[in-house]
Design goal:
The structure is a single chain. The chain has helices at 2-16, 25-46, 54-76, 98-116, 122-127, 129-136, 142-164, 169-195, 216-223, 227-251, 254-257, 262-269, 282-311, 320-340, 345-348, 352-356, 359-371, 388-391, 399-405, 419-423, and strands at 374-378, 429-433, 446-447, 453-454. By secondary structure, it is mainly alpha-helical. A two-stranded antiparallel ribbon has the order 1-2. α3 (54-76) runs parallel beside α7 (142-164) and α7 crosses α12. The longest helix is centred in the middle third of the chain and has 30 residues, at 282-311. The chain is globular.
């Protein structure tokens, strides 16, 4: 009797945690490769006078990528398909423990150096010079180093995400999409354009997320660059005013936030381990709406001021609009989207910027809530109130509250990542499109501690 019980326990442990006593051999060897790559980067970071070395650069990139992919395979490939979030609240790095705070400090420090103290990254810039010269025909700078780190992270941890969610076709295709757009549209194409002496243009970013796209100076520079520059202006205009409303009408904001955007791609891949840290409180929900729509208003006003100032040749506003632009870039573009938005992954969750600050997400959210066919339908009769959906919603939506009432989810903040549906053990949640008229979008009535009703 005891032997059978012990045997069942061992089987259960092997399925939920393949290596309860520690890492398997593959994980240990792959961790060593990752450590080699990171060690080379650390040596160059601490030694700004070291000359670039193509062999060491490729060893750093190769060992990190191979090690990361190998580690993911060693962790997931030999266990049954199904999402594994074992011990996520018991690991310090994913539950705001000491390791999580340490990682947050490192990430935040890196972004501070990136934006305001690039000289501290001289060694890393030297390390990646060979890659920059080969792709862009010019020496590396801190932004090329950042783009390389960013892309490697999305690719490696995107592969991990695919293995983890391999039982869900939607998640696989979505992950491949963000990996493709990051590698091609946000890394290789801009680099090749620079090599061809063309503007370093990012086709997957546009206003209001990439605020400069509609600034008069930027438009003038692109138009003056010839036919390709004119096409870039045309592409931006088409994507902002035509493609965005149409695609959002049919697919909701997920077409961009979860399939194309690099910010969302990093959150979904690198930030997957921290998605459960998003605040689901009513206070956070109120704060979210105030901040994100304020960000949208600020960028709309800024863009309008710059065009008015340009039209009047600075006679009315003088340098006010430029001061405004620099302030917005510092507070929103640097501190919010970079330092807080990514550096605080281990502390506040993976979609801080997308949820609270991104003006593009605010624009798409308005379209999604009032003019889109997309919604997440619920079958309340099947809900067992396990709370998985709410726990792993990176946008801080209390999905369970909707499911328990059998109400469809039509929230402006929802990015349609589908993880709530993927982690549901009963198939209660489904991502669907339907007619705008007649859809059920009655949000749960929330009563705060003072007995006041809060309507969404």
């Amino acid at each position: 009797m005891n032997q059978n019980s012990s045997s069942k326990t061992d089987i259960s442990l092997s399925l939920s945690n393949p290596n309860p006593a520690g890492m398997n051999l593959g994980q240990k060897l792959s961790s060593f490769l990752i450590a080699v790559g990171l060690f080379i980067c650390l040596i160059y970071f601490l030694s700004p006078t070291l000359n670039s070395n193509a062999l060491l650069m490729w060893l750093a990139i190769g060992s990190t990528m191979v090690g990361g992919i190998w580690f993911a395979r060693s962790s997931y490939s030999h266990v049954p398909a199904g999402i594994k979030n074992n011990y996520v609240f018991f690991k310090g790095i994913s539950s705001r423990g000491l390791a999580g705070w340490f990682l947050g400090i490192i990430l935040t420090g890196f972004y501070i150096c990136l934006y305001w103290f690039p000289a501290t990254l001289t060694g890393l810039i030297n390390l990646f010079n060979p890659l920059s010269l080969s792709l862009r025909a010019k020496p590396a700078d801190q932004w090329f180093v950042y783009g390389t780190f960013y892309t490697v992270s999305v690719l490696v941890l995107g592969f991990k995400f695919i293995l983890k969610y391999r039982n869900n076709r939607y998640q696989i295709v979505r992950s491949i999409s963000v990996m493709f757009f990051q590698l091609g549209f946000a890394f290789l194409i801009p680099a090749i354009l620079v090599k061809l002496n063309q503007p370093e243009y990012y086709f997957s970013y546009f206003w209001p997320l990439k605020k400069e796209t509609l600034f008069p100076d930027q438009v003038s520079q692109l138009v003056a660059n010839g036919n390709l520059g004119v096409f870039m202006v045309f592409w931006s205009t088409m994507m902002i005013f035509i493609a965005t409303p149409i695609l959002t009408y049919f697919f909701g904001k997920r077409w961009y936030c979860s399939w194309v955007c690099g910010c969302g791609g990093l959150a979904e891949t690198t930030g997957d381990a921290f998605r459960q840290l998003s605040d689901k409180s009513l206070k956070s929900w109120k704060l979210e709406r105030w901040i994100i729509y304020t960000s949208l208003v600020l960028i709309v006003v800024l863009t309008a001021l710059l065009w008015v100032n340009s039209y009047l040749k600075g006679e009315l506003l003088g340098s006010i609009s430029q001061v405004y632009a620099k302030s917005y870039g510092f507070l929103i573009g640097s501190i919010f989207s970079g330092v807080i938005g990514t550096g605080f992954y281990p502390l506040l969750g993976s979609r801080v910027w997308c949820r609270f600050g991104c003006p593009m997400a605010a624009t798409l959210g308005i379209l999604q809530k009032y003019f889109s066919r997309f919604r997440i339908t619920t079958n309340g009769g099947q809900c067992i109130s396990c709370g998985n959906c709410s726990t792993y919603c990176e946008m801080g939506i209390d999905v369970r509250a909707y499911a328990q009432k059998g109400q469809n989810i039509v929230r402006s903040s929802c990015v349609g990542c589908g993880v709530c549906s993927a982690v549901c053990p009963r198939g209660v949640l489904k991502l669907e499109n339907g007619p705008v008229k007649g859809r059920t979008d009655d949000n749960p009535i929330v009563i705060d501690r003072f007995g006041a009703r809060l309507d969404v």
